[in-house]
Specification:
Helices cover 69% and strands 0% of the residues. It has 239 residues and is mainly alpha-helical. The protein is elongated.
Length: 239
């Protein structure tokens, strides 16, 4: 029987690295089962080797989102990096990669692009399709046109994505190749209207419902679509 309470850090320091990581992993599992807050469990997991369970990735990701909301992006980056060491598939893997890319966008832009690239090329599901479009738009906004052009050129031909995601990726693919410029005359006017409309939706769906740029895109798209429509039906032939 122990005569006095022993602080955990005093106990851990007496162990070798393997024993310490096993102990911390066991404590993290026990805390998770006892509904201890994710931030506490995730902090313990930062000191352990990968435990090979999806729930660990989910806990680390949830804690990282909390840290991001609180403005603690440095800890969020560590948590998300640690989450990538655990098994995660489908939309969970895409969420982790997207959030890490978003957190690192301003500080480590090239690493951010790598994470976005994995999201863009990820297997399709409904949530991943949304993240795929957002990742391509953020990478393009940062100026990495070559990356976006290559990845969207590959992904937009896949048949496992929703039509909406495929159409928006096509729009971003065109944007990445600097095809916008001036409003084109003739037969490409309809294509430009679709492109502007898709870009406007991307900008408006990014979180700022009052985005002036997105609203301008939609107005210009409407004008060009009307121009194409009336050029076809009223003039008797597509211009």
């Amino acid at each position: 029987m122990l005569a006095d309470w022993v602080p955990s850090d005093h106990l851990l320091v007496t162990m070798d690295a393997d024993a310490r990581e096993r102990t911390q992993g066991g404590v993290a599992e026990l805390c998770h089962r006892r509904a201890i807050p994710d931030t506490v469990v995730a902090n313990i997991l930062l000191g352990t080797r990968p435990i090979g369970e999806t729930r660990a990735a989910r806990v680390l990701h949830d804690a990282a989102r909390t840290c991001t909301e609180e403005g603690n992006t440095a800890i969020a980056t560590r948590l998300l990096g640690r989450a990538l060491q655990e098994p995660a598939t489908g939309s969970l893997a895409s969420r982790i990669l997207f959030d890490l890319g978003e957190v690192e966008l301003a500080t480590v832009p090239f690493a951010s692009d790598r994470h976005f690239a994995r999201v863009i090329a990820a297997p399709a599901d409904r949530e991943t399709d949304v993240l795929r479009v957002r990742a391509a738009d953020l990478a393009l906004s940062r100026g990495d046109q070559a990356l976006v052009s290559r990845l969207t050129g590959e992904v937009r031909r896949r048949e496992d994505m929703s039509p909406g995601a495929r159409g928006t990726l096509l729009a971003l693919h065109w944007l990445s190749q600097d095809w916008m410029g001036e409003v084109p005359d003739g037969s490409s006017c309809a294509d430009s209207a679709i492109l502007l409309y898709a870009r406007g939706l991307v900008r408006l769906s990014s979180g700022d419902a009052e985005s002036p740029a997105g609203a301008t895109d939609l107005r210009n798209a409407h004008g060009m679509w009307s121009r194409t429509w009336y050029g076809t039906t009223v003039g008797g032939a597509r211009r």
